[in-house]
Amino acid sequence: MRRIYQVASLVFLAMALYVVWEARTWDYMTPLGPGPGFFPIWMGLVLGGLAIGWLAQVSLRPADPFPAGFLPDRAGALRLVSIVAAMAVLCALMDTLGFQLTILAFMLFLLMALGRQNLLVTIVISLVSSFGTYYLFKTWLDVQLPASSIVFLRNLGL
Amino acid sequence: MDTFQSLLMGFSIALTPQNLLFAFAGSLLGTLIGVLPGIGPVAGVAILIPLTFELEPIGAIIMLSAIFYGTQYGGTITSVLLNTPGEAASAITCIEGYEMAKKGRAGSALSIAAIGSFIGGTLSTIGLVLAAPPLTRLALQFGPPEFFGLMVLGISLLMGLAGKSMLKALMAGIFGMLLALIGMDPVHGLPRFTFGRMELMEGISFVPVIMGLFGLGEILSNAENALKPAFLRTMSSLVPSRQEARDSVLPILRGTGIGFGLGLIPGMTGTASAFLSYVAERKSSKHPERFGSGIIEGVAGPETANNAHAIGALVPLFAVGIPASPTVAVLMGAFIMNGLIPGPYLFKEHPDVAWGVIASLYIGNVMLLVLNLPLIRMWVKILEIPYSILFALILTFMVIGAYSINNSIFDVVTMTIFGVVGYALRKLDFPLAPAVLTLILGPMMERSLRQSLDMSQGDFSIFYTRPLTIALLAIALLIVLSPLLRFLRLRKASALQGDAEV
Hints:
- The structure holds 2 protein chains of 2 kinds.
- By secondary structure, chain A is an all-alpha fold.
- Chain A has helices spanning 2-23, 38-60, 74-114, 119-139, 151-155; strands spanning 29-30, 33-34.
- Helix content of chain A is 71%, strand content 3%.
- In chain A, strands 1-2 form a two-stranded antiparallel sheet.
- In chain A, a hairpin with a 2-residue loop joins strand 1 and strand 2 (33-34).
- In chain A, 30% of the residues are buried.
- Chain B is mainly alpha-helical.
- A two-stranded antiparallel sheet of chain B has the order 1-2.
- Classes of the chains: A mainly alpha, B mainly alpha.
């Protein structure tokens, strides 16, 4: 557990260093008072100090094992990675395939692979949450959801 | 215009058919958010903000406020029937509520909780009406240094209560503050931390960040465990016995006082109010040994307290523009998105919004009571939908919510990234509340700091020559340093214990 905390504190320290490094090029003080660099420099310095404090705190105490449930089991890790990957693929495809097809694929994957629902339930819920939601939001709430950038699909209303 | 006339004007606005509809929709959606396990009020309000984009500001705020206090009602249902709190403030209700459900008295527990929530919410709204105007007049005397001091105090109070480690709370707070710095500098217009992306020039949208940290982060945490259906207790008659009604009177009144009082203090959460109310009930009971076996006082007190707290927490927001809790901070963000700045000037410049929203709190509480008791069986039906389906639907709704903020996939990417960050911070035991508060207060804090130093031409003595600013900053410093002082006192005490002379 100690190693994880050490790595996390170093990530915070790196973030603090980046903030200070970036902010040093901006005016710290101007004739009108504090400049754009004033607040970020102080925030970066305080975060850096706290990160060093945390690093020292965790490094000085004896190594301890992971608390129960800290690491997910294999199935849990797979579910976790699947959701993040599905979200990443959704972000990548949304502008190309449009909302309806992307959400249809997204829901089919989540319900079949992770939810282990039967085929009929999966198809009905996926269709309602993709095509149904698109229609509902566009017609009733005037929310414009993305259409496909592929002309053929766009002509089909997707 | 005196307070009573202002309130009447508020009612004339809140009672228009469309505002009644928004209060109704908000109450229902809030209850739904509260009912759904794994999605708390912070993420719930953030997810539903995009629904209000097409509305007039007053309608939007009425709906979002109703969502906010509606979550407190909904959270009880899962606590009693599933032994799983729909939101944290109802966690303590699991102890007595679920025991009552096991004995076939779930209906009584839910009825008393709804009645207590109604009484707590209504009495607290009266408190809000009485407390907000004088506080507002006081706040109008504040200059930028006092506002800076007040914001520092608010943030430090939250950090002091936000978990086991002050160090982590401070780091989370600064993390939120750094996110708030992204975008154009408010005074000089210089882009900061934008990585050359046009989407970041206006700053990072707080809605996808909060959806990610709280909503997606929570879903990822839940996904670690198998998505099994929960064991649902069956419902019984909703009518409580005469004895149960009698036993609930004093806990409801005490819960109102505790919830409203603690709600006024920035940093106190509804969970703390509910917990304190439970402890107060056990201490004042003639039969403390019966607590834990399904006793109505343990449901009535905490459930009243968390609703009274929700309304009490709106006092600092309306009076001085300081959010007292993360959910209120999100609500404050919604005000800002609608071009309204909560605080003393809201009553002066937009009295229709301020009093309209306050009047809608009364109406919303009545709606929740009238609607929710007969609808409890419908909420129970929703709980029967497997979580493996619910989580996929919630994810889809979050995607729509994030996308519709700027009609850009960039916000969905932001939400995904912050979902992973939220999951990691949860694993590392970081409190997320300070990050939300500073994300929303950060720009205001920077502006008041820079305005103060502008006033003094860069002289920092402005912060220690004005009595109120000194007092506010000194209290904040004391709170931030309190863990260190406690640590030093403990060391001294242990040294004394080792001394044979003592």
